[in-house]
Amino acid sequence: MATLKDIAREANTSESTVSRVLSGDQTFSVANETRSRILKIANRLNYRTSRRRQINQAQHIAKSIGVVQFWDKQVVEHWDQFFSPSVREWNGS
What is the rounded distance in angstroms from the CA atom of residue 2 to the CA atom of residue 10? Predict the structure, then answer.
């Protein structure tokens, strides 16, 4: 079974770059040529994400939460009443 190290060695890049490309990390800036090369090599080597890595990624996603705040006066009044205490608690304030 191919590993990130195998792909990185053949693609002439780091394991972390391979990991971020294969995980679909949209915040990671990498040249299209490098991304394409990594994906082709992973496909050719029949790379499969390990079960452990899948679980870790799922746990990371499950721990994320997004908060949207509106600036309309009525919405802000309701926001403050119901959500501000929770947001302060999450932030440890």
Answer: 11
For the chain, state the CA radius of gyration.
20
Tokens 């990624």 appear where? 57
Does 15 score more than 80 pLDDT? Answer: yes
The dihedral built from the CA positions of residue 45, 51, 57 and 61, taken in this order, carries a sign that is: positive
Please give the model's pTM, rounded to 2 decimal places: 0.56
Give the distance, in angstroms, between the CA of residue 21 and the centroid of all CA atoms in the same chain: 10
Distance, CA of 34 to chain centre? 19
How far is Cα 56 from Cα 69, in angstroms, rounded to an integer?
30
C-alpha span between 30 and 79 (Å, rounded): 39
Angle between helical axes of 15-22 and 4-11 (0-180°, round to 10)? 110
On the question of pLDDT at 87 being above 80, the answer is: no
DSSP letter, residue 76: H
